[in-house]
Amino acid sequence: MRARVTAAFAVGAFALSAVLAGITYFTARQSFLNERQTAIQRQAFVNALLVRNSLQASGTQVNQLVDLIDTLPGSVVNWNGQWYATSISVGQSAIPAQEQALVLGGTPATQRFSLDGSVQVVVGVPLPAVHSAYFDVVSLQELAGTLRALAFALAAAALVTTVAGAAVGRWASGRALRPLAGITNAAVAIAGGQLDTRVEAGEDVDLQKLAAAFNRMAGNLQARIEREARFTSDVSHELRSPLTTLSASIGVLEGHRDELDPRAQRALSLLDGDLLRFKRMVDDLLEISRFDAGSAELSIDEVDPGELVRQAVMTTSPIGEDGNRIEPVFPVEVAPGVEGLRLRVDKRRFERVMANLVDNASSYAGGVSRVVVDREPPGTGSAARSIRVIVEDHGPGVQAADRAHLFERFYRGTRSGQRASGEGTGLGLSLVTEHVRLHGGTVRIEDAEGGGARFIVELPLAEPETDGPEVLL
């Protein structure tokens, strides 16, 4: 907006100065020409009078006439059909034929014409008493130079006026839009999660109303978000007690499963599955409420990236009959150059990240195809800045329309609203984003080379170790 206001002032100043300069130039030009032409005409009649008096004198010879003309620069005389001129360049051939016809016919005439690229004025005065005609040819080259200097000065003045207009426009727009810039910064801060941001109105009466309305809106928004966050947290906490009771009750029923008829056993299995999903959703809601309240904490450990990912992937595998976890069916590939690098992460939160990504792939994309641990930038030619953990799946990929919303809460893409076995709550990927952001990292989605989706988690490498334990809030 400031640029548009500045441009508008500049264009307005240029248009106004151009119009004024044009009016000034053409007015001055016409005035100078008229004044110069009047002076030439006056002088021409004086010169014509001298020639007539000389020719009326008895015994005037041709050489006497030539001597007289030589004292009158630009003069041309037609005497008894013969032409006499001051110089060869200014003679009969230089005078327009129309001018010659009028003057020789007895009519005084004045005409402007171009001679060798220079503007000339010719004034013709008939002298019938001595059977002659007098012509005075005068160059306007000096006046043209004056007009060029005037045009240059007016153009320079228009340019200076345009620059000054742009400067005034920028100053005025900056002064007028400074309050809006403060409101914009406040809006950006609120959008970034700083809900306690407010706008100072100062002494501007008009701005005070806008600032008051903005602050009321921000206050209402903050109160509503905090109220919803408290509601989510309270509901989640309240649900944990009955869920614990239900879990204990189902555990008792599971111990007597063999005593139940097949129909009751199926109902018990469905109840157990729904209860597990319900517990997971409550746990996710509690975790999200901590993020919203700003009370999420990191318990940092310095670890080897490859080993961290292997252990996190192993925790996502089911437990076998022997009580040990089953090896995952997908490989974990550690790229060259990762060895020796160190990450500082909260292992519990990172395990949740990997568990949610694996669960997402299992629910929607036919499972994980591979997990890759690589450095960023790839290769060993330059120092690594971060570690990338890449999770690829067997699915058809993620549509472009879904990628912008996939990490939003309760968003499940084209499956949203459907209820199917193993389908999540739509909170898993949003929690992945929160956990990664808490570590100062990023997560994004790409298309895998062999098909399917590729989730890339990028975490910064560890800074030089400091003394004492560290807990990041």
Describe this structure in words.
The chain has 473 residues and is of the alpha+beta class. It folds into 3 domains: 2-148, 2-Layer Sandwich (Beta-Lactamase); 205-291, Orthogonal Bundle (Helix Hairpins); 296-472, 2-Layer Sandwich (Heat Shock Protein 90), CATH 3.30.565. It has 10 helices and 14 strands. The protein has helices at 2-56, 62-70, 97-104, 141-191, 205-255, 262-293, 305-315, 347-364, 400-403, 428-438; strands spanning 75-79, 82-85, 109-115, 118-127, 132-139, 298-299, 301-303, 332-334, 343-345, 368-376, 386-393, 442-447, 453-460, 471-472. The strands form 4 sheets. A 5-stranded antiparallel β-sheet has the order 2-1-5-4-3, sandwiched between helices. Strands 8-10-11-13-12 form a 5-stranded mixed β-sheet. Strand 4 and strand 5 (132-139) form a beta hairpin. It starts with a helix and ends with a strand. Mean pLDDT is 80; it is low at 416-422 and 466-473.
